Amino acid sequence: MIEHDLKYCPKCRDEYRPEIETCATCALPLIQGADLAAMENKQGDSCRVRKGALTQDDQLVVIFQASLPEIKHLKSLLEAEQIGTLICKDSQACGSGGGCAPKFQLQVRQEEEQDALQVLAEEHRRVTVLAEHDVTHAEAVFNPEAEEAVCPACGFAFATTITTCPDCGLCFG
Of the residues 36, 59, 69, 157, which has the maximum number of CB atoms within 10 A of its CB? Predict the structure, then answer.
């Protein structure tokens, strides 16, 4: 049972006291129990309407192309969400003897494409830690005619007489 006031690792599901921030095993940021419970309820609802394994009659679409190890990892994530997948070698990509590694395509049912893309987007945010990045100042624009600028990368305010953010080093010149 998930305790709403405790924290949990999103990967291994280990339970932690509220003041702990990072999983000791996975080194991932912890999430609140209430958030984990909501995620599991949402996943359970969406999994119930999915068809699971593919059949011959399914219309498939390519959602990702990469090396085989990366495709296998994404396939396992999608299958955990009851989204049927198929891996195919990309016939357009170079193969053996061409000096580059072959590429593979990950395919899913056309009607589950948006669900699959959402799973992949969540995985991308998780592994790149984008979910924790402060994007408050992402729309900031360096205006050399203004007296002060706000760095879009870190949010540091500085005089426009300099063209490099003194906090993070982002160059505007």
Answer: 36
Helix axes 113-128, 68-80, angle to 10 degrees: 110
- Is the whole-model pTM more than 0.85? no
**Helix, strand or coil for residue 105?**
strand
Q: Is the pLDDT of residue 151 over 70?
A: yes
Enumerate the β-bridge partners of residue 134. none
Tokens found for residue 102: 């072959």
Residue with tokens 């006291």: 17
pLDDT higher than 60, residue 42? yes
The angle subtended at Cα 29 by Cα 23 and Cα 35, nearest 5°, is 105
Single-letter amino acid code for the residue at 59: Q
